[in-house]
Structures are given as C-alpha cells and as structure tokens.
Amino acid sequence: MKYGTILVIDDNAAILTAVKICLTGVFERVVTLTSPDKALVTIAQENPAAILLDMNFSLGVNSGQEGMMWLSAIHRKYPDIPIVLITAYADVKLAVRALKNGAADFVTKPWDNDELIRVLKDAIDKAGEVIPLDQLETEHVRKVLNKCDGNMKKAADLLGISRQTLYNKVKASPLTPLRGEGKLRGEGE
Amino acid sequence: MKYGTILVIDDNAAILTAVKICLTGVFERVVTLTSPDKALVTIAQENPAAILLDMNFSLGVNSGQEGMMWLSAIHRKYPDIPIVLITAYADVKLAVRALKNGAADFVTKPWDNDELIRVLKDAIDKAGEVIPLDQLETEHVRKVLNKCDGNMKKAADLLGISRQTLYNKVKASPLTPLRGEGKLRGEGE
DNA sequence: GCCGTTTGTCCAAACATTAGACACACTTGT
DNA sequence: ACAAGTGTGTCTAATGTTTGGACAAACGGC
C-alpha cells in the first residue's frame, strides 16, 4: 500500500464514520479526531501522510474561522503534510483564503467518495515530489532573469550572486529560451 | 505610481467601464478587452503588471471552461504575470481549480472596489518578490531533509548532491531547527 | 556624439564539491 | 549477543566554481 496514514478531523461522528469507511482500504490507516484540540499531538504520534480537516467546529459557528485557525496552526508546524479542507458551506472566499493559507485542496459536502480519494492521493503525491537542487536553481534563475528583462547585472544582484556567476550559469544551461514578458536584449521586434 | 499597467478582460462592456473607473487612478494604465481572443497579443504589447480575467465568455456558457482555458493559455506563456479571475458564478470547485491552474486570486461578482484593488495590488506585490538564490536553496534543502527524517544520505541523493556537500550546507546554516514530521536522529522520545 | 550602463572576456585567489576512505554508532535479524 | 547492513562524522587530494577586479567593446538616452 503506497499511501500511508491519514488523519481525519471532523466534529460530526457520523461523517467521521462515513469517511473512515470510504478511506479504509485505500490508506494504510485512518485515524480520526472529533476535535482539532489534540491535532498537533496526534500528528506527532501518527505522522500522517495527509490530513482531512473539517472547517467548522464549535456548533453554530460556521464562518470557518475555527478551521482556518487550525489549518494555519498545523501548516505552520508541519508544512510538509498536505491538508485537505472539507466544509458544508460552499464559500468561495473561504476556499480561496484556505488555499492561500497552505491548504492542499478544498472539498465541499456532500462529497463524492472517489473524488475525495483522488484529491487526497493527489495531495500526497504532490507533497512527496522532490526537485533536485540544480533544477530548482536553474528554474529560479531563469524566472528572475526574465523579470529583469534579461538584465544580468540586476538579476545577479537580486539573486545575491555575482554577475559572472550568473553569466556562467546561463551559459551552462542554454535550455528553455522562455519567451514572453518583455523581450530579452537583442530580440528583434 | 508604483503599480503599472493592468489588463482587464470581460465580455460585458458595462462591467469593463465600471472596473476601468474603479482602477484608473490606482494603476498607471488600464487596458480593456471584450474578448480574450487577442489577449496574448495585447499582453505582448502592453506588458501588464497584472491581468483581471472574467471566467465566462460566449454568452450562455457559464461553466467557466472558457475562462479556465484562457487562464491556462496565458499563464503558460506568461507565468510571471499574476492573473486574477472574476466570475458571477460563485463555484467553489471552479475557484479551487483556477488557483491550482496558476490564478493569483479569485473574486466573485458583485465585487467590492477596495477589495478588488487590494487583491490586484497584493498579486502584483507577490509577483514582484525575488528570493535570493541561497535562501531558496537553504529552504529547499531543509524541506527535503525533513521529508527524509533527517537521513542525509537519502536527502543528498534526492537533491542530486553528494552527502558531504549536504553535510556542509547543513553545518553552514544551523538556523531553523524545524521541528515536526518525525524525529531527527538522536532526538529523544 | 557623449556618458553612464551593461556585456563579454580574462585573471588569480578563495572557496565549494567531489569520490574515496575509514572508524564509529545505530538498527535489525537471528 | 552477535554479525550484517546502513548512516555518520571526519579527512584528503583533485577538480570545479565563485569571487572581485579589470578592460575593451557595445548599447541607450539625450
């Protein structure tokens, strides 16, 4: 089984059961919590591959503030564990804020079991990807160079490396001419 | 004026006018298009600091497919220009998909002028940030090391560098002990 | 055409990375 | 408790990279 432990946090026991049934068989282990109070402790103990977090706890308060707070708290402490949010209140603003706060995905109730499984798997797969250091470097260098309209001196300065080093790096990877965003010096109009 | 040109694309001329009035004075120049057909050409000419893109063109088709297509097309060609989406149909799935497809933000109609301005400014500010190369490197190294539970040999392998180099890098930046996600070797229980 | 900036190129010194080696610590299976 | 397997911390010597400084040539604005 490729996909490890998953932690599900929801204040509704019925939903917890339903999710557990849906996810058991796909994930090695499904741990549930009815409140996020002990989330950090449980995460430390179980080291889940992903977390499925409901956004509204404390009955009656449905603004999602609770869930957002926990999302931030968990994400700050465990930035490498993908957190998928789930909520009954399909609020676009909330969803956008959640994704910008580090959520891996956002699902609304009622959910589709297959979709939920796909979303969680995707989140885990994406979190597991590791980019080699020099690839990361090359990509970033090209992005900054692009932003500087090809001005190597400025780009080198922003990158915190010397002009010659940038020059050498660019020469070393002549790949991806990377069009767009203002012509590189010497390009005709 | 710190914030440059902005390109607004919406098939509704009235909305285009309203947005233009709202944004003029805040941005140096507001360029409008009633159809995204010429978006790529216009972007090449105007080099906007951000793009505000409506999600439903071709009257009657409100699924947002049109807008999503254009989002992808523009983002692929100009990955450094932030694209803010705007739509009348507050669909969470659509918003999530848009953000995962590279949108900088997602706003629903009717919009709040101040919020729209804030969102666009934020998007531009964020796109303008440049991370120094060694900071990017250090962050990535620590993330991967963390994922490997502190196993330097494995981490070095994934990063594509030698074990000793990783060892030196870690020694060089003893910052951010970075707890969580499984104990590093030697940590007590 | 002049002036400030940027490029392409070179140098030599300082620094980083590499494979290989080795003793030691730790985990695991028996 | 032992041996096998793996990972660490440390070292070396060769190789490769980054650095500031320097300079002629090219470019852009005025």
SSE layout and pairings?
The structure is a homodimer of 189-residue chains.
Chain A: E1 5-9, H1 13-23, E2 29-33, H2 39-46, E3 50-54, H3 65-77, E4 83-87, H4 92-100, E5 105-108, H5 113-128, H6 133-147, H7 152-159, H8 163-172
Parallel strand pairs in A: 1-2, 1-3, 3-4, 4-5
Helix pairs in contact in A: 6-7, 7-8
Chain B binds a DNA duplex (30 and 30 nucleotides) through residues 151-154, 161-165, 167-168, 185.
Characterise the protein shown here:
2 copies of one chain form a homodimer. The first copy, chain A, is an alpha/beta fold and 189 residues long. Chain A is built from 8 helices and 5 strands. A 5-stranded parallel β-sheet of chain A has the order 2-1-3-4-5, sandwiched between helices. In chain A, helix 4 links the parallel strand 4 and strand 5. The first copy, chain A, starts with a strand and ends in a 17-residue tail after the last helix. The C terminus of chain A is likely disordered. Chains A and B meet through helix 4, strand 5 and helix 6 of A and helix 4, strand 5 and helix 6 of B. Chain B binds a DNA duplex (30 and 30 nucleotides) through helix 7 and helix 8.
Strand content of chain A: 5-15%
Compressed to H and E, one letter per element, the order of chain A equals EHEHEHEHEHHHH
Counting helices, strands and paired strands, the structural category of chain A is alpha/beta
Q: Which two chains touch over the largest interface?
A: A-B, 42 and 42 residues
Q: Report the C-alpha radius of gyration of chain A, rounded.
A: 22 Å
Shape of chain A: elongated
The largest beta-sheet of chain A arranges its strands as: 2-1-3-4-5
**What count of helical segments of chain A does DSSP give?**
8
Gap between N and C termini of chain A, in Å?
Answer: 55 Å
Q: What is the averaged pLDDT score of chain A?
A: 87
Spans of chain A with pLDDT under 50 lasting ≥5 residues?
A: 178-189
- What oligomeric state do the depicted chains represent? homodimer
Q: Helix share of residues of chain A?
A: 40-55%
Largest sheet of chain A: 5 strands, parallel
Question: What's the β-strand tally of chain A?
Answer: 5
